[in-house]
Amino acid sequence: MKTDRLIGIITTIQQKGTVTAPYLAEKFGVSRRTINRDIEDICKAGIPLLTKQGAGGGISIMEGFSLDAAVLTRQELSAVLTGLRSLDSVSKAPASDLLAAKLGADTDIPRDMEIDLASFYKNDLAEKIETIRRAVKETRRIVFHYYYAKGEADKLVEPYRVVFRWGDWYVFGFCPAREDFRLYKLRRLWNLNVTDEFFTPREVPPEKEPNRSRTESMTDDYIVTAVYEPAVKYRLVEEYGPASFITREDGKLYTEWGFSTPEDALRWLLSFGVDVQVTAPPEMVKKMRSAIKKMKKRYKT
């Protein structure tokens, strides 16, 4: 705790230029005598602090002595705290305020960016992330029940890290049953537990690393041609970017995209309702017609 306080004192003086002992005592919740001893210890460590009595006086760093490499600027500190606050949104033990106190950061450090990584399911997400991180640290396998396109199944996985990608949280690990590295979305993962089974971490092949772009991580062998209404342009831009379609003379949006499977394409296209018309391949046109007929029967009165 004393080391943390000393770092905080140095950072505070560096940021403010001159501070008083009463100010530091109140800020760090200790007596003025303790602050005086801290100042002596800092000086003994080779950082020259000057104390000036009277009005306008206080404690400062000797002119010409630079601590640029040892402390953070306000802009750097703001960036660090922004990152930590974002992690606080998915953590059961928030750390940003504690670190801010250690670094001597004031409440006036600007909050010019707010990042909420939890969305609307913070409680479940924080619990899962904490459990997975513990399993990674202890190199223990985890088990969970997983829901995916083909159904659901119980999984046994060797966890390597928690990953935030493409707007969602995943656990990246090795699946012994599949003998391969996989990403599992935490929102589809339930009944998570850490087992008593230890594992030896394997070397991750570069092509299996989860830090590749979404387009690099997905196959696009199934090509579908479709025309969208202008009203859904925002969705196309959000998913694939403004260069992913051609605007026709009638204002409609022409696309020729690749999907991993016909099933993935069908789910995506059906989500647009009447705002999309599939033109190729013929197989996908038939699948769309069949799905629409089934929906009509379901809602037939």
From TrEMBL:
InterPro entries: CBASS_pafABC_assoc_protein, DeoR_HTH, HTH_11, PafC-like, WCX_dom, WH-like_DNA-bd_sf, WH_DNA-bd_sf, WYL_dom. The keyword Transcription applies. SUPFAM superfamilies: Winged helix' DNA-binding domain (SSF46785). Pfam families: HTH_11, WCX, WYL. Gene3D superfamilies: Winged helix-like DNA-binding domain superfamily/Winged helix DNA-binding domain (1.10.10.10). PROSITE patterns: HTH_DEOR_2 (PS51000), WYL (PS52050). It comes from the Bacteria. GO terms for molecular function: DNA-binding transcription factor activity. Residues 2-57 form the HTH deoR-type domain. Keywords: Transcription, Transcription regulation. This is YafY family transcriptional regulator. It comes from Hominenteromicrobium mulieris. The lineage of its organism: Bacteria, Bacillati, Bacillota, Clostridia, Eubacteriales.
